[in-house]
Design a protein that fits this description.
Structural class: mainly alpha
Largest sheet: none
Order of helices and strands: HHHH
Number of domains: 1
Number of strands: 0
Number of helices: 4
Oligomer: single chain
Length: 76
């Protein structure tokens, strides 16, 4: 089993499987530039998924090391 497969398998145990499937598909199929600064609310809308479940899955994915979590602060 590849490292990525192991990470997504672990994520499926901790998050909604449908959301994890969408994340995994996005990671495997999207161009590199689409994987930088993923907006989870836009991701949820694009894939027709529940926002709360998507947020939870991405946070869990970051904890597992699938993604690096960072914040962009926009000042008015």
């Amino acid at each position: 089993m590849s490292e990525a497969a192991a990470l997504f398998s672990a994520l499926r145990e901790r998050a909604d499987a449908g959301v994890v499937d969408a994340i995994e598909r996005h990671v495997r199929e999207a161009p590199d530039h689409a994987l930088c600064r993923i907006n989870v609310l836009e991701f949820a809308k694009r894939y027709g998924l529940d926002e709360e479940r998507v947020i939870a899955a991405f946070l869990r994915a970051a904890r597992l090391g699938v993604f690096e979590l960072s914040w962009n602060v926009l000042c008015p």
